[in-house]
Amino acid sequence: MEISPLRTFTILLCLYPLTLWGQTKIPEIPHNEVGFPLPYYSPVSGTFAEIRNHNLHLGSDFKSYGLNGHSILATFDGYIEEISYSKTGYGLSLNLYSPKYKLKSKYAHLHSFGGSLYDLELLRQAILLMGDPNGFQLKLPPGLFTTKKGNSLGKTGESGSGISHLHLEFRSEKGNINPLYFQEIHQKDTTPPTILSMYLEGDNLEKPILLLAKEKSKRKYELFTDTGDLFESITLTGKVRIRLSGYDFIRSRNKNNVYGMDLSVNGRTIFSRNFDFLAYEDGSKKHQFYDINRSSLSPPVYFYHIYEQSKNFKDEGFSLDLESYQPKEKLELEASLRDATGNKSSVSFVVIHEKNDTDHIRFVKNRKNGNNYSSLEGKISLDLSKAEVSGEGTLLINEISEKDIPFKIPAGLPLKGKIYQIDSKKMSWKGEGLGEWNIGYTPTTKESLYFYDSSIQKFQSITQKRKYNGFSFKLTKLGFVMVLSDETPPTIFPMTSLARYIELPEVRNHCFEERFYVIGDVGSGFRTSVELSIDGQTYPYEYDPDRRAIRVLIPKSLQKERPYLLLEAKAFDFAGNVSEPFVDLISTSGWAEELQASCPVME
């Protein structure tokens, strides 16, 4: 087998002796020796341990305001330990290592290594020329590229996944450290977390209670029932589970994950958790911290377990076991959310230890066969046998009338048939539930299955397949399913939320004019292929999944021939609807002064 020179070089570099790390989870590095990763105090746009598709977010994201090319700065003294590149995931990234404190920081989604270590950028370009242009991972000899805290290491970009931002991680031998653990990074946050709701389960409640939270005074919230009544006390018995929904603002409009949470009974703390550290093996176990059937990343809705959840997922945890208290004893409970600076918001209520059989909330019984659940008449079912099911409860699939749903069906999407609500009682699942819905006929092209997510209160896409008698589908969340007919065409417009350029001048390609056109659809979803022409001729483009837009690059050499360019585009959806033609008249005046002799010329 022939081994390439680059692969041989990589293997030799990997044979350097490994450094023996300390045994502490978080190295004892003085907080003032860890600096900010950017030359301006960018707000945090994504936080540690947030929900992602398969794993938890293991770092913090920092805003770059839609512009690539900002300098990234060394967070401490050290050397570059590793560089890598992939077309997905982290994109272009580097690892900075501190041998003194045995701490790594990882910078991801970079544009280049164009910082003070100029030879590092030359190495990147050489590797891509010599090796696989789709990706590489290279360990570097210790001390080859050394740097001091605050020095520039590269430029921000949007390589890998996501639009322009900087992703930063801190790693010890044992796992990942929340960047907000370091004072310089959480930037003296003065805004306490926001509490949205509380989800309460008890052994004598046939159905969990969702209580809405409203701020009574700064940092103090009150709870209200779905009928608007103030919730102050409840009689319960047995095991009680509390889930708290909320988020945190950190100098921006982004609804971030909180840093910690607490539960106290009669003033004594019985549960506390910090998102300051995650062991490497816990990065994929989001069910330990969140109700994953009710939580969401976009928009951010986090239902936190205010209790320890079993790592094997099979056994459901609990917040409080009332059997250890005296009958008729009154317990004052306070549940709180905290940020990294120590700001705290809380809700309080009283639990009376007494079984109250008259307080049950009635619901329609469902059929159950193992882990296969179905509605009363058997038209719709959800099979959880291939998912991991936790808890001793059941799944509820109940028909509900249109007048009783807590949302409005969008105009242009008429309802076809019934609406079913999918909820749970003292159980949850991890993975995909396999659903079947027999509607009694073969659905048309315009008819699709729609899902309204109860936790985020909006329609979300659902994996589905048309069948001769209805639909098969996959579900990971709780909410409402229905069949709607898509009678509304898609749209295509210029992306106005972006500046004219998405790169700073020092990293911009001056040879091309870059245009983005966003595609939207309220119905079955838009196709990523469009009909695009410039001056009547079919013109190439690429689809940007992060911006949900097409990206068009126009050579500035066309300025020599044409003072204007006429761009026309049409978008299509999966129901066969076609958008109105969009026309953009592009003026080429002003391109000449930026034109460089090295730019390609359009023939």
From TrEMBL:
It comes from the Bacteria. This is Peptidase, M23 domain protein.
